[in-house]
Description:
Elements: E1 3-10, E2 14-23, E3 29-37, H1 42-66
Antiparallel strand pairs: 1-2, 2-3
Organism: Acorus gramineus
Domain MULE transposase: 2-53
Pfam families: MULE
Amino acid sequence: MLCVDATFMKSRFQGILLAASAYNAEDKLYHVAFAIVDNENYESWLWFFTNTRNSLCYACVIWSHFG
């Protein structure tokens, strides 16, 4: 299961932090992906999920090849 969330950055750097996390086999929290976007909207989430999915699928292929 992948947990996602967003939060506003209220410092010198403005924007929205999108994050995806999961638990690994040792039941530890594992940060899968993060991104900083201008707005929290459909396009930002679509971009985030698309890139996260592509990265995870690539990692799965590598893992199955070497695992």
